[in-house]
Amino acid sequence: MSVSANYNNGINRHENIVGNLNLEDDSIPSETNSTFAIAGVIAVFIPAAFLLYRRKKQ
Fold first, then answer.
1. DSSP helix/strand/coil, 18
2. At CA 55, angle to CA 46 and CA 50, rounded to 5?
3. Nearest alpha carbon to residue 4 among 17, 14, 13
C-alpha cells in the first residue's frame, strides 16, 4: 500500500508519497480492538455531549 499527500503552500503545490507500507492483519488481538473502539466512542461522545449542553445552556 502507498499513501500520497497533495497540498498547497501558498501558490506552491507539493506532493509527498510514502510507498511500501506493509500491514499485518493480526498485529493486535481482537479483544483489544473492541476495547479501543469502545474507548474511542466514549472519548468522542463525552466532549460532544458537554458542548451541546453548554450551547443549550446559553
1. strand
2. 10
3. 17
